[in-house]
Each structure stands twice: as structure tokens, then as C-alpha cells.
Specification:
Distance between the termini of chain B: 84 Å
Shape of chain A: globular
Shape of chain B: globular
Low-confidence stretches of chain B: none
Oligomer: heterodimer
Order of helices and strands of chain A: EHEHEHEHHEHEHEEEEHEEHEHEHH
CATH topology of the largest domain in chain B: Rossmann fold
Largest sheet of chain B: 7 strands, parallel
Largest sheet of chain A: 7 strands, mixed
Strand content of chain B: 5-15%
Mean pLDDT of chain B: 97
CATH architecture of the largest domain in chain A: 3-Layer(aba) Sandwich
Mean pLDDT of chain A: 97
Largest interface: A-B, 46 and 44 residues
Structural class of chain A: alpha/beta
Strand order of the largest sheet of chain B: 1-8-9-5-4-2-3
Structural class of chain B: alpha/beta
Strand content of chain A: 15-25%
CATH topology of the largest domain in chain A: Rossmann fold
């Protein structure tokens, strides 16, 4: 076991996979000599060489488009996009190509690539460095969308994502990159895609979240003390998400609050509520409440705290559902 | 301080066979008489196919179809320089290329009739499914070529696109990555002078598309795109160069779209009649016939035989195509992920029952 932060867990996961399979390559802006702007790839180029850990031109479309070609021809590219707000230059490549290669070639070609990118706000970053676009990527059949919330899951999910036969968007919670330290195994282990984690069992209310908001939810639950028995569900994979765990938890508790950092309209919470309506409506004791960002573009640093869900907003959501 | 000239550039143009069938023997690539006949027969075959597919669309026997008349030599000449294990990343106007690259004609017809089974490349040749968005396939070719290089495979990737695609960022980023990483890739631009209705001069102020390669640090040249020998030779040199580890090449095939953009288009709305008639005189098949006649490689009887043989091949494929059973509707779920998601399983059940 070794004590690691999320960003260190990313580094460990990448190192493990680069060492295991010579077809794994890491590519992106500043990932080589500089070790990535968050140091997620620190030391990897020195260890595996510039042909395996590749500094590319500053061009997101090129990074993703070339990764697709690499994946088609036998490599396992792990592309880093420096901030998730810059992925959109490559959105066409992901939507029109990466997601459809298996289908369009009827299985003759596949696109086993991973796109890693830090997402989310709360660190007073510049414009377009803070967005949460998990719902956008989850609306594309053919992609998988993963968001870890702690170091253990980060390494295990990353290893699983790299072994996936299909393209995976791997969202890294930038805000808590270094906020949580956890003992994690140095040896290989996997956290399977498509499986949620019950971070805490409870009977009164199901609290669903993922990524950096998981910590906010944990802080809220801690503040509640023994007032309610909360079941905290960490979704971990957004698409395909673990509907079974969500539904069985909601059936058990009868109450649900969903917390995400993305804006409310067409956020992934809407999808979860639709599923709950389809499969657990008659178990509900209260309407499901969403604690999300409002429907505005991510504001600049001075006002970001008004935009982001926080402990108080989560507690307010919980009280609303419990007091119904 | 006097100004200095840091760099000077030139752009070469290659023509071997002119429109009168005169051949510059000094420039002629090594091709046996059999090779020349093969090229001729393939050019005729794909032209017969193109006309047949167009007719079938008009008769309601085929969906929207993208013709390539005028561009046969670009596709047949370049395909002749590639090996089966090389990759091609085609665009939608590349049915001739696919046929030359062993893609069964039945499947080409299936694709243009909205049947996904048509897209699956045969296992013995690396043809990527055609790209419908413009120019987006160029970076895939660079990536595939890069993978070949990193894995020590002697494989080359060729990508095909039109003059319109060179206006897109995809083209720029692909060319730039190819240059920086010296990947074994050949960019083949079929400059047919039009992007639907917008003429070439509205895509770029550059005098040639070939010269764009210079900015990315590698060679670009323009060839007569209706001269199958010039296209073949330029591609062969580019492929050999790439295979030897000497990086990418941009080949601008200067040609003309002798047809509408698609079966939904009417080129007479924007194509000057005189210009069209001038280009018709440059046709790749007619000039090759003139050359072959002079070399005694073609007479009327052979010419007739090649047309009839082509018609037979196409008719046989059409018959087979029209007898194909409908695709299994469940197939829409089959190839999205390696394993279907639980949600997909529910949806399939809802749509089709057990």
C-alpha cells in the first residue's frame, strides 16, 4: 500500500499500464518533459521514452484524431486534453468517429482509446477551465464516460478504462486532485466500469453524486451527524451507469437527492430521475430533488461559489426531501 | 542590414500522358503491358459502375449516390501503388478506390442503399469506412501511419479528400502532425475544382493546393489527375518514400468533377458549360485509349470486350445485391460496444420482443 492523491493515482495507473503493454502510448500537450501541467504524467517520459509518452503540437482535434487512427491500427492511445473545456475542438472526432468506428465497420475496426481530462470548478481557474460536460459525452452512444471521486477508484477505474475495447472519456476531478489522500495498492487491481459504489449505506435517503461533488456530499453527510441515515451512492461511471444500484437504493429509502456540478437542464440528474420514475416511482415518499449549478455559463472566479453546489445547498436539498 | 532570403520554394507539376495520348517515355513509370491493360480495364469497370449506380438511383433502386466521373484516374492510379496491408482512409467520393481495393461491388451498392453491411472492409485489405464529414479522416490516417511507425510495421496510410477539405482545420492539424512526427502517410487531394457549387478559388488564395505541404515541412506536388500514369508514379514515389521512413507527401491530383456533387445536385446551376466541355476533352480513359492504340495494346475488339466484361461484372453484382436479404434489425445494437449495455438490452427487448 502507498499513500496517494488522485493525481498520483493517475500517474501510478499510467505507469502500470505503460509497463504492462508496449502498445500503450500517452500523448498530449506538455505530457512529456514537463510531466503534464498537473504532473499527472510526471516522470513517465523519462521512464518510457519520447515514443511512448509523446509531447504533441497544441491541437486538440489533432491529438484526438491521431489517437483514433492509432487505436484503429493496434495501439492503445491515452490522450490527455489539458482542461476539459478544450475538448470541444475535438468533439466532432469523438461523436462522428471514435464513437462510431465499431458500428460503421461492423466490428472490423475498433477504437480502444482513453481520453483523460481534468474537469470542474472551485479552484478559481480561468474561463473555460471549469466546466462539467459529463452529460454531453454520455449522450453519445459508443463512448463510455467515467468520473472517479477518490484515489483508489481513480487507479482502478483508469486501469479498467485502458483495458476497455471501446473509447472511454475519463474525467478527472481537478478540484480534489490533491485534496484526498488514501492508501492504495501498488499492485494491479481494477474497479469495473458501469458499477456504482455505495460510499455509505443508509435507510432514510439516497444521495447520488460523482466526481468532485462526492466530497461535498460526504462533508454534508458528516455535518448532518445522526439526523438522517443517508445512503451515499458514488456513480463512478456515468455512461453506462449502474441503474440497478440506483433503483434498489431508491426503492429501499424512498427518497432521493442528486448532486452534480453541471447545470440543471439536461444534466445527468435528469436521466437518473427519469429512470427512477420508470422503475421506482411507487417507492417514492417525496419528489426527487436536484442540487446542481444553475442554468448559466460557468462564472468567473469571483462568483463561482454562487454557481457551485456546496455543503449548505446539499443540506437544503436533503431537508426539502425529508420534510416533504 | 540587407534583407536575406531565408527560403525559396518551387512546386512541381507532373504530367506523363497528355490528352492527345502522347507519352513522355522518360517520365514513364515501370509498367508492363499487362499492368497498363489492368489499369485500363479497372478505369472502364468503375466508370460503368458509376453510370449504373447513377441510373439505379434515378430508377429508385438505390439511395443517394455520390458519383466520381472525372476522378477515376486519381483513385485507380493511386490504388495501384498501394499494398493490401497499407491503410486507406477514403472520403465519400471514393467508390472507385474501394472497388480497386477489393471491396466487393455488392457491398458498395449496399452502402449506397443505406445498408451498413456495405461498410465492412474485407479482412485481407485495410480499407477504412468512408468519411461522410469532410476532411475528418485525415488525422486518422496520420494516427494509423504513426502507429505503424511506432510498431515497426512497414505500412503506409493514404488518405483521400477534395479541395474543399483543405479549408478545414482537420486538414491543417493532420498535415502538421504528419510533418512533426514524420509519419508514413500520403495525402491525396482530388482537386475536382468544386465543393458542391463553390469553386476552388473560393477555398484558398494559394495558386496550388500542393504548395500547402511546404508550410508543414514536406513535399507537395501537383499531378495531372486525369493522367493515370502520373497519379500512379507520384503515389508510388510517395509510398516508397514513406515506407523507407522519409515521411509524408501531399499529392494534388488536378482533375474535374464531370458529374453532379451527388444524385441530389444539379451542377448545371453553377458549372460553366464551356469549362465543362474543355475538361471533357481531357478524359483519362480516352487519352489512355489513344496511347494504347498507338502502342498496339488496344483495338476496337478489345475495347468492346472490356466494356462488355465490365457490364457483366456490374450486372452480376447488381443481381446479387438485389437478392440480398434484409439486414437483421437487431444489428443496430450489435456493434455499438463490444458488449451491449443493460439499457440497450432493455431497448432491444422493447423494440423486438424476445
Amino acid at each position: 500500500m502507498v499513500v496517494a492523491t488522485i493525481v498520483q493515482a493517475v500517474n501510478m495507473g499510467l505507469r502500470q499500464e505503460l509497463a504492462r503493454d508496449k502498445n500503450v502510448v500517452v500523448l498530449g500537450e506538455d505530457v512529456g518533459l514537463n510531466g503534464g501541467v498537473f504532473r499527472a504524467t510526471d516522470g513517465l517520459q523519462k521512464e518510457f521514452g519520447p515514443d511512448r509518452v509523446i509531447d504533441t503540437p497544441l491541437a486538440e482535434l489533432g491529438i484526438v484524431g491521431c489517437s483514433i487512427g492509432m487505436a484503429v491500427n493496434g495501439l492503445k492511445p491515452i490522450a490527455e486534453i489539458q482542461f476539459s473545456g478544450f475538448v470541444y475542438a475535438a468533439f466532432d472526432q469523438l461523436l462522428s468517429h471514435a464513437a462510431r468506428i465499431r458500428m460503421r465497420s461492423r466490428g472490423r475496426y475498433t477504437c480502444p482509446m482513453v481520453l483523460r481530462t481534468p474537469y470542474g470548478g472551485g479552484i478559481r481557474a480561468l474561463e473555460l477551465h471549469c466546466e462539467s460536460g459529463e452529460a454531453l459525452f454520455s449522450h453519445i452512444s459508443g463512448l463510455k464516460m467515467v468520473v472517479p471521486s477518490n484515489p483508489y477508484d481513480t487507479k482502478g477505474l483508469l486501469a479498467a478504462a485502458i483495458r476497455e475495447p471501446d473509447p472511454v472519456i475519463f474525467y478527472e476531478p481537478m478540484r480534489i486532485y490533491r485534496a484526498i489522500k488514501q492508501d492504495i495498492p501498488e499492485e494491479e487491481y481494477f474497479v469495473p466500469l458501469g458499477k456504482a459504489n455505495i460510499a455509505q449505506a443508509g435507510d432514510d435517503l439516497t444521495l447520488i453524486s460523482w466526481g468532485s461533488m462526492l466530497k461535498t456530499c460526504q462533508d454534508a453527510v458528516e455535518k448532518l451527524g445522526n439526523k438522517y441515515s443517508v445512503e451515499l451512492v458514488d456513480l463512478r461511471t456515468i455512461n453506462p451507469y449502474d441503474e440497478e444500484t440506483v433503483i434498489s437504493s431508491v426503492k429501499k429509502t424512498g427518497r432521493c437527492v442528486i448532486v452534480h456540478e453541471a447545470m440543471k437542464t439536461c444534466g445527468f440528474g435528469a436521466e437518473l430521475i427519469a429512470s427512477i420514475n420508470e422503475k421506482a416511482l411507487l417507492s417514492l415518499e417525496a419528489p426527487v430533488v436536484r442540487v446542481t449549478a444553475p442554468d448559466v455559463p460557468f462564472p468567473l472566479a469571483k462568483l463561482e461559489n454562487y454557481f457551485l453546489p456546496d455543503v449548505d445547498k446539499v443540506l437544503k436539498g436533503i431537508e426539502k426531501v425529508m420534510g416533504f | 542590414m540587407p534583407k536575406k532570403v531565408l527560403k525559396e520554394f518551387k512546386v512541381e507539376y507532373l504530367q506523363i500522358l497528355d490528352e492527345s495520348g502522347n507519352c513522355d517515355e522518360a517520365l514513364m513509370p515501370k509498367l508492363s503491358n499487362d499492368d497498363i491493360r489492368k489499369l485500363y480495364e479497372m478505369l472502364v469497370l468503375v466508370r460503368v459502375f458509376d453510370q449504373k449506380a447513377f441510373n439505379m438511383q434515378r430508377q429508385g433502386r438505390l439511395g443517394t449516390y455520390i458519383q466520381f466521373k472525372g476522378q477515376e484516374a486519381c483513385q485507380i492510379g493511386s490504388a495501384f501503388a498501394l499494398q493490401d496491408e497499407d491503410f486507406v482512409f477514403p472520403m465519400y467520393r471514393n467508390s472507385a478506390l474501394l472497388i480497386a481495393r477489393k471491396h466487393p461491388i455488392v457491398q458498395v451498392l449496399q452502402y449506397w442503399n443505406g445498408d451498413e453491411r456495405g461498410l465492412r472492409s474485407p479482412d485481407n485489405v485495410n480499407n477504412f469506412p468512408i468519411a461522410i464529414p469532410v476532411g475528418t479522416q485525415a488525422t486518422h490516417a496520420v494516427g494509423a501511419a504513426w502507429a505503424a511507425k511506432l510498431q515497426g510495421k512497414k505500412q503506409v496510410a493514404a488518405t483521400y479528400f477534395g479541395d474543399g477539405a483543405t479549408s478545414k482545420g482537420d486538414f491543417h492539424e493532420a498535415m502538421n502532425f504528419a510533418g512533426v512526427f514524420n509519419t508514413p502517410v500520403v495525402f491525396i487531394c482530388e482537386n475536382n475544382q468544386f465543393a458542391i457549387s463553390v469553386p476552388r478559388k473560393r477555398q484558398t488564395k494559394s495558386d496550388t493546393i500542393a504548395q500547402k505541404a511546404i508550410a508543414y515541412g514536406f513535399e507537395g506536388l501537383q499531378v495531372d489527375g486525369m493522367d493515370v500514369f502520373a497519379v500512379y508514379k507520384a503515389t508510388l514515389l510517395a509510398v516508397e518514400k514513406a515506407r523507407a521512413g522519409n515521411g509524408p507527401t501531399l499529392i494534388e491530383c488536378f482533375t474535374y468533377r464531370m458529374c453532379d456533387h451527388s444524385t441530389s445536385d444539379d451542377a448545371s446551376r453553377y458549372r460553366p458549360k464551356e469549362e465543362f466541355e474543355e475538361w471533357m476533352k481531357k478524359d483519362s480513359i480516352e487519352r489512355l485509349e489513344k496511347y494504347m492504340r498507338k502502342k498496339e495494346l488496344l483495338d476496337d475488339a478489345y475495347k468492346q470486350k472490356v466494356v462488355e466484361q465490365s457490364q457483366q461484372i456490374i450486372e452480376k453484382a447488381v443481381t446479387e445485391f438485389e437478392k440480398m436479404p434484409q439486414p437483421d434489425p437487431k444489428d443496430i445494437f450489435k456493434y455499438v460496444y463490444a458488449e451491449m449495455t443493460n439499457r440497450q438490452k432493455e431497448e432491444m427487448q422493447e423494440l423486438f420482443g424476445n
